[in-house]
DNA sequence: CGGGCAATGTACCAACCAGTACATTGCCTG
DNA sequence: CAGGCAATGTACTGGTTGGTACATTGCCCG
C-alpha cells in the first residue's frame, strides 16, 4: 500500500533537509555552505531548517551525527569469520577501501570537521568512542592470526586500523591534490583494482611473521 | 648592518600579508577566512591585499603556491645516499613523518584545497608535476634495493610514495576526528616515536623480499 | 631638491547571508 | 466536525564581508 502523498509530513521534510544538507556541506564545507542553497534544493523553505534544527550549526551537527551513524551501520555488515586470518585481514583492508570509495561524501565531511579541529563532533555524545566496533573486528582477526602463528605478535589492532584507515581515507580525501601533483587519477576506475590490492598487500606482508 | 626600519617596504608588506594569510586560511578554510581578519593581523590594511594580490582568491593562490614552494625546498634537503636501501627506505618514511608533523599548516591547506576539488591549484602553473622530485628519490632507493636483491621487484615508486604520504598526511589531517573516535591523541609527544617507527616498519616489511 | 609615481591609508558601499516576526494552513483528536 | 496545534510559508532585517573610490604620503631619480 503506497502512502498518500501528504502535503505535510514532518518526517519527510526533516529527512529531505538532512539529505540535501549532507550534500551541500560536503560540497562546500561548513562556512562555504549556504543555508539558502540548502533550502532551495528542497521542496520546503529555509524556515524549516530553523524549525527542525535551530540553525545552520544545528543542521550541520545533525548531518555529522547521521553520517557517522550510517557508517557504523555499514560496518556491521562486514563478516570475515569463515576466512583464515591472512585472508580475513586482506578482506578487511580491501573492503575498507571499497567502503571509503563508496562513501566519498562522508570522507569529505570528516575532512571538513578536521579543518574545524573536531569542535562540532566533540559536542555529539553518540560519537564518543564510536571507533571501538571497527577496531574490535581488527583485533579479533589479529588475535586469531597470532594464535595460529601466522601473524607477528608485536602489533596492536589500533596500529593496523590506523594504517588501513590512513590509506583508504587518503585515496578519497586527497585525490585532487595528489592526483594533480603526480599526473595520476586515484579515482579512475582502471586504477581501482591495483589500489585496492595494494593496501591488502601492505597490511598482509607487514603482519605476516617470517 | 641592520636595514633601517623603513615606513614603506613593498617586499615586507607583501611577505607579511602572505605569512598571515597562510595562517588564517589554514585555520579557517577558504570560505571561513576573513579578508578583514587577515588585514587586522598585519601592520598594513586590507587595501594592500587588493593592491598586491587582486583579491581574496588571488591571495589564496599566492599562499598555496608559496606553501608548495616551501615544501619542495625542504624536500631537497633530504639525502639518504650513504645508507643501505633498507635503512634508506626507513629513513625516507620516517623523515616524511617528521616533515608532515612539522608542517601542519601546509597539510591543512592541502586538505582545504581538496575540499575545493583542487580547482585553485589547477590554475597554478608552477605546481604541475611538482611531485616528481620526491618520487624520484623513492625510485632511486627502490631501484638500489631491487638491484641488491633485498627488495621485491613488483612494486612501483608511486605506490610506495602513496603509502607513505597517506599515512603521514592522515596523522595530521585527521588527528581530531580519528583521535576522538578512538580516545587517542595522534599528536601527543609520547606517541610520536611509536607512530614514527610504525610507518618505517610497514614500508620496510612490505618491500623486503622473502 | 623637487617632481612623479609606487605604495599606502580612510571611508565607504552594495551584495550577501544567517536568522526571525508574523501570518497561515492542514491534520488529528476528542 | 470543529478547535487547536504542529507544520509551513512569506517577507523582512541587521550585521557581515569582499571589494572600491579617492586622497595622501614617502621615496627615488634626474
TrEMBL record, chains A, B:
PROSITE patterns: HTH_TETR_2. Residues 34-53 bind DNA. SUPFAM superfamilies: Homeodomain-like, Tetracyclin repressor-like, C-terminal domain. Keywords: DNA-binding. Residues 11-71 form the HTH tetR-type domain. Signal peptide: none annotated. This is TetR/AcrR family transcriptional regulator. It comes from Nocardioides lentus.
Amino acid at each position: 500500500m503506497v502512502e498518500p502523498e501528504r502535503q505535510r509530513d514532518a518526517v519527510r521534510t526533516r529527512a529531505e533537509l538532512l539529505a540535501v544538507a549532507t550534500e551541500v556541506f560536503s560540497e562546500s564545507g561548513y562556512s562555504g555552505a549556504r543555508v539558502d542553497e540548502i533550502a532551495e534544493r528542497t521542496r520546503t523553505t529555509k524556515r524549516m531548517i530553523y524549525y527542525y534544527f535551530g540553525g545552520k550549526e544545528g543542521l550541520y551537527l545533525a548531518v555529522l551525527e547521521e553520517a557517522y551513524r550510517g557508517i557504523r551501520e555499514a560496518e556491521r555488515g562486514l563478516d570475515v569469520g569463515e576466512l583464515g586470518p591472512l585472508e580475513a585481514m586482506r578482506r578487511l583492508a580491501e573492503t575498507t577501501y571499497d567502503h571509503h570509495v563508496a562513501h566519498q561524501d562522508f570522507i569529505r565531511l570528516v575532512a571538513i570537521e578536521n579543518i574545524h579541529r573536531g569542535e562540532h563532533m566533540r559536542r555529539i555524545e553518540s560519537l564518543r568512542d564510536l571507533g571501538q566496533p571497527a577496531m574490535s573486528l581488527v583485533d579479533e582477526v589479529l588475535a586469531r592470526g597470532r594464535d595460529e602463528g601466522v601473524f607477528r605478535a608485536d602489533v596492536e589492532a589500533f596500529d593496523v586500523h590506523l594504517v588501513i584507515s590512513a590509506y583508504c581515507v587518503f585515496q578519497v580525501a586527497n585525490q585532487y591534490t595528489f592526483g594533480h601533483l603526480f599526473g595520476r587519477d586515484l579515482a579512475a576506475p582502471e586504477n581501482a583494482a591495483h589500489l585496492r590490492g595494494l593496501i591488502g598487500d601492505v597490511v598482509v606482508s607487514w603482519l605476516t611473521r617470517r
